């Protein structure tokens, strides 16, 4: 994986190459990891190496939180016993893991980066950018450490200076708030130390982020100077005039600063957080910085977010076992005789995988390792094979349990259960559109999807039955997760814990559980959550600051007083989401826009559940859309070397058009999404 595109994939979405399934795929993944490690050159300082080693143990807190959640379900429904201690313990454990994940991702260079300049550089130019980015990261970390220190002071000491620990105030009344705030202080302090180390590394010109010996190109330096000039001039203007510039100019500066800063390649997790701090200081003064840390603390303490690492852990366990591979093989028997049958079976398998995990990156990599070589071997049209894998793997945004919908429900205060019900029909409709497209193309031109060998289709009945058994356990896990939610047995978070246990037991039955499987799955969960949650932390802080500036009232008033019809306003929102999806990760988009958009939707008299489905469908478009469609980079990380990013993006165009068609249908026909929740409420 020595190509620049692979580097970009690893930097943008580092979770991709770590997913796998089965022994053969594990060998391919090991080769990918070795190639990436050889190219990287290893961590660049002792602090980063220590953080990565300690992460091997910290990640087991996810397993502990899962077991406590399972106990909570059994105690409440089996023995009618109070479990407030379990509830609060899980929140604290996951919060600590989230905070540690930020340090681990920085140590392993796994935070998501998007930079038109950054990824086109190397050598001295890359060192210059790393120096600038690390300097900005240092400022961010110091500001958070200062704010966290003020929080720790209040939670560990009384105003008179006497020692005491802040408690939760619940029936159990633990000291977890004080401990989590101390963890935030420690995390931000370590991030500052890491940034200092990376600054020194950039100055020396060593380490895995760079190749030494290459000169700094004049054009690259000019581009960097222009970007830095824009940032400095904008910052001076902001700090010179502060609140007097007004919310209109402030909004333009805020959006412009985000767009400029992401060009430099600074991790998205730090872009929004850094801008939040800068605008806080400019608008409210240095004493307003603790507002940012309080938003971060509130975010990591949200109980709904506990579901995210558990669904990630489910996906990782599933992909590292052989269940997903056997599920795919079983689908061959159902679709083998149909035109384009292997591509259709890939989509059917993708629906099942989405219903089990809700994690997109792992599904695309998994299908890229299993299905793509199979279709290419059979002579399938390359573009059709590429589009099938990326579009099918992206169905995780729509098929419950979707993490995209979980975050939307959290930010918009909408029932996640209603969102899961509402997305069933649109998700299956979109999958059906994909299947119809593939079937039609392969019927009109059979060379696009040659049939499977007749000998393979005519296998003995006993062998067919053996392959069909591969469907039982994955489907059983999906029924366990979704059935426990809709049956009222467990919340979404608790259902995620049940899903983890279900996948683990299924792997145990299949005799696939090993120490390496457990350890690697937990480490992958820590990395993935570190990327996702830290983008959310920065976005949550930025939204909080912008709302205090009056931004939400400004945007709401501008839109509602524009005189446009409600449907035109919704179309404008969809356009904004599509544009943002070209440049930003979905969780950042959700946390930046939904607190502003959803209240407007409600005031327009429209259903926020329906809007949530539109948002999820929009984010699915963003997964495939160039220039930074994550699906393309996930697939590139495991695709044949002769498959370029431009070829992948060209192959995705028909599937993007299908997504937009499905989005338009649900947009103008809300009952498609709302029928099932209304039916369930009427029962």
Descriptive notes:
The chain is mainly alpha-helical and about 675 residues long. Helix content is about 75%, strand content about 0%. The protein is built from 29 helices and no strands. It has helices at about 5-10, 20-40, 45-60, 60-80, 85-105, 125-155, 175-205, 220-240, 245-265, 270-285, 290-300, 305-320, 325-335, 340-355, 360-375, 380-395, 405-410, 415-445, 455, 460-485, 490-510, 515-550, 550-560, 565-580, 585-605, 610-625, 630-635, 645-670, 670-680. Helix 17 crosses helix 26 (about 610-625), helix 18 crosses helix 29 (about 670-680) and helix 23 packs across helix 25 (about 585-605). It is globular and about 80 Å long. The relative contact order is 0.12.
Radius of gyration: 25 Å
Which descriptor suits the 3D outline?
globular
Low-confidence spans: 1-43, 207-216
Structural category is mainly alpha
Largest sheet: none
Count every beta strand, where a strand is a DSSP E run of 2 or more residues. 0
Helix content: over 70%
Query: Element order, helices and strands?
Result: HHHHHHHHHHHHHHHHHHHHHHHHHHHHH
Number of helices in the DSSP assignment: 29
Give the termini separation: 54 Å
- Overall residue-averaged pLDDT value: 79
Kindly estimate the percentage of residues that lie in beta strands according to DSSP.
Answer: under 5%
